[in-house]
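== Sequence entry ==
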Amino acid sequence: MTCSHVREHLELFALRALEPADMAAVQQHLDSGCTECRREWDAIQEALAAVAYLAPPAEPPATLRSRVMNAAAMERPPARPAKRTAVPWKPFAWAAAAAAVAIFFVQESRLDRYRETVRSLQSEVSRQTAILDVLNAPEAREVIFGEGASGRVLLHPKLGVLMIARNLPAPPAGRVYQMWLVPRTGLPVSAGLPGGGVPGRVTHFHPTQVDLAQVAAVALSVEPPGGSPQPTTRPFLVVGL
């Protein structure tokens, strides 16, 4: 079985509702060391363990004590066959309900992961759309730079600033790039933290309104994780406008 097939069958596997061959195949896959499927299986087991406490404690019938005492006082068992006792349905009903709740929790966990993936993809689509808008906007100001690190910077008065660079020096361990808008007067303004990707390359877009007449340069510096309010090191790349 593939991982996707195993994960689709884990709930039924937990209830032992699969065919023997499928039960064996799922067990073999879990024993193979697949971390993703094992994590899913652990979540199902935790859910089952949690909902087990939802079932109320079984109270013995009020007549049980008297029946036991009467039976103990008799010298011999009755000659006639003992009356068959009906199998109680409540334990089975609670087991089925507990399994249903466990499956519900597992499915909700999966949905949460899918929603997070969708949100991440939507954010990336929005980012890529904004980059294309800046690249295609005739009113954007573009500056091409070279000599060592090379690339280009585009500034749009309403959309923001875009830097595409390559041949950048790798930041020291435990440090990150931070981009800055350097005004003609005043202190630099953070333009975000270019994310990782291909070593030595950056494609970073920072959405903001830009007064093109007041920006003197776009710069990159090396900063602690999370960035700094102001540069703590001398920028290693300054692109004048």
